[in-house]
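Lab notebook page, bench 4
Experiment: in silico fold of construct C2
Operator: M.H.
Input chain length: 228 residues
Purpose: comparison with the prior construct
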Amino acid sequence: MDEKVKLLLIEDERMLAEILADTLSGRGFCVDVAHDGEQGMSMALADDYDVMIVDVMMPKMDGFSLVKSLREKGFVVPVLFLTARSATEDVVRGFGVGGNDFLRKPFALDELIVRVKALAGRLSCHAVEECVYSIGKYIFDARENTLAINGVECVLAAREAAVLLLLCRKMGHTVEASWILRELWGDDTYFNLRSLNVYISRLRHRLELDDCVKIISVRGVGYVLRVK
């Protein structure tokens, strides 16, 4: 990486935190560590981070409460939740409080790194013309993660923008869900597919102001971004 991604790791299991911090630092990341929710809150508000890695189960303040509180304060840094739980309601709750991705324990360190890079917006744009897309009445700028229509602009979450970019690059053609998952999540497990479906739903909501723009599900295969 040309520029170090700055991470805040909030993990109460000290041995795991040490292993993760050492590994990520060895891969070129800059890592700060907190061991409980309250400490994580203070550190998040005191410095600028590119990505937060937050364990769900922590003392003093759990991960969901921490992220919910930060989002209410206007904190927009992408959040990757670490969780030993895989129930659907936990995933839904996590996205509901402002999480951007989930990684279920135990996990491979390489998968963690792939997800952190995706959240940090490291999905490459090779040229300016490949990063600004016209989608019906919308203008999508993949460099800035912005989507604009009629002069009104919104900032997409890093993973939302990454999914939309992959759909834009193959606009009008079916994009396999398994390929998107391997590109952005590192594997195509069912757990990750549920996360992808949440982002597709969010993007459909973002694009609903233009009736000519649709993200169509191709059952059992993937999605098509289509403009009539």
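Observations: Residues 190-206 form the longest helix (17 residues). Confidence is low (pLDDT under 50) at residues 122-129.
Next step: discuss at group meeting.
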